[in-house]
């Protein structure tokens, strides 16, 4: 019996190793392809950009919570987070892990591929509660839509214990309440630009409903028809795929709107 158990464990370990090596190989190939994308040219690196003078965001500590879009997975790890730091003098706390979700479930694929599959909720609670934070900017995760996690319902309560973090809505409410209780700071959610996903569209609508309950900031790139009205050549240059921007996409398309709306929101609520 012990021998059979040992053989079984060896088989499982071997299978996990094969999957891990396969994922790492695929990721390495994708990283090379992404680096060669025209929108990821060196001209768009933050080291080649000039800082905005007298930015209202100068020296503000902002926690950026999210997954691959916040990380900059298709832009060699350079997202709007690095742009806010380089252009506006923001002091960033970048808590971004590719493949993870708002819903409080472990992502095995993210764990195997990137070494961390913890949800937004779990990673948020692991951060230092004593650190001064001026604002939290949270991604409305496309991973929850891709995995078709349950949207859930808006709670009648504002108590932390009342939120079902196994649903998207409950996880969003948990993030909002936890950040307010812990850092006493404004909370802003941002969406990605438009892509064809009924599940994500429903998440955006729910986010706007939560804005009414919680008076949070929402940078809604998804629903803004004028923002999304760009020609196909520009879109292909700015987006590596329907979800992930290139460096140029962050810099020239997403960042101006995100910067403008974040500054305006903090001027009223900071």
At the fourth level of CATH, the homologous superfamily is SGNH hydrolase
Q: Which structural class best describes the helix and strand composition?
A: alpha/beta
The largest sheet has its strands arranged as: 2-1-3-4-5
Largest sheet: 5 strands, parallel
Output the CATH class name: Alpha Beta
- Known CATH architecture: 3-Layer(aba) Sandwich
Q: What's the end-to-end separation, in Å?
A: 64 Å
- State the helical fraction: 40-55%
Number of domains: 1
Broad shape? globular
Rounded average pLDDT: 92
Q: Oligomeric status of the shown chains?
A: single chain
Ranges where pLDDT stays below 50 over 5 or more residues in a row are none
CATH topology: Rossmann fold
Spell out the key features of this protein.
Rossmann fold, 11 helices, five-stranded parallel beta sheet, alpha/beta, 270 residues, 49% helix
Question: What does the model show?
Answer:
The protein has 11 helices and 5 strands; from the N terminus they run H-E-H-H-E-H-H-E-H-H-E-H-E-H-H-H. The longest helix has 34 residues, at 2-35. It has helices at 2-35, 68-71, 80-88, 108-114, 120-125, 142-146, 168-183, 198-214, 225-228, 232-238, 247-269; strands spanning 61-66, 91-96, 135-139, 187-190, 217-219. The protein is of the alpha/beta class and 270 residues long. Helix 7 (168-183) runs parallel beside helix 8 (198-214). The protein has a single domain, classed as SGNH hydrolase (Rossmann fold), CATH 3.40.50.1110. The chain has a 5-stranded parallel sheet, sandwiched between helices. Strand 4, helix 8 and strand 5 form a beta-alpha-beta unit. The protein is 49% helix and 9% strand. It starts with a helix and ends with a helix.
């Amino acid at each position: 019996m012990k021998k059979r158990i040992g053989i079984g464990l060896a088989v499982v370990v071997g299978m996990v190793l094969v999957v891990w090596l396969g994922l790492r190989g695929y990721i390495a190939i994708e990283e090379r392809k992404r680096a060669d994308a025209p929108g990821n040219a060196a001209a768009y690196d933050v080291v080649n950009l000039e800082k905005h003078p007298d930015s209202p965001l100068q020296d503000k500590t902002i926690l950026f919570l999210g997954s691959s879009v916040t990380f900059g997975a298709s832009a060699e790890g350079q997202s709007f987070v690095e742009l806010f730091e380089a252009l506006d003098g923001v002091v960033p706390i970048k808590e971004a892990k590719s493949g993870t979700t708002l819903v409080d479930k472990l992502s095995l694929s993210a764990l195997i591929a990137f070494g961390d599959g913890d949800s937004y909720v779990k990673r948020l609670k692991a951060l230092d509660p004593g650190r001064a934070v001026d604002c939290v900017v949270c991604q409305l995760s496309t991973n929850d839509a891709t995995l078709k996690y349950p949207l859930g319902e808006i709670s009648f309560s504002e108590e932390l214990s009342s939120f079902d973090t196994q649903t998207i809505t409950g996880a969003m409410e948990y993030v909002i309440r936890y950040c307010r209780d812990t850092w006493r700071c404004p909370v802003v959610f941002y969406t990605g630009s438009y892509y064809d996903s009924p599940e994500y569209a429903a998440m955006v609508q729910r986010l706007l409903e939560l804005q009414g309950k919680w008076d949070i900031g929402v940078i809604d790139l998804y629903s803004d028809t004028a923002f999304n009205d760009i020609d196909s050549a520009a879109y292909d240059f700015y987006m590596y795929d329907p979800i992930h921007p290139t460096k140029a996409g962050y810099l020239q398309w997403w960042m101006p709107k995100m910067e403008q709306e974040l500054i305006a929101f903090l001027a009223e609520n900071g």
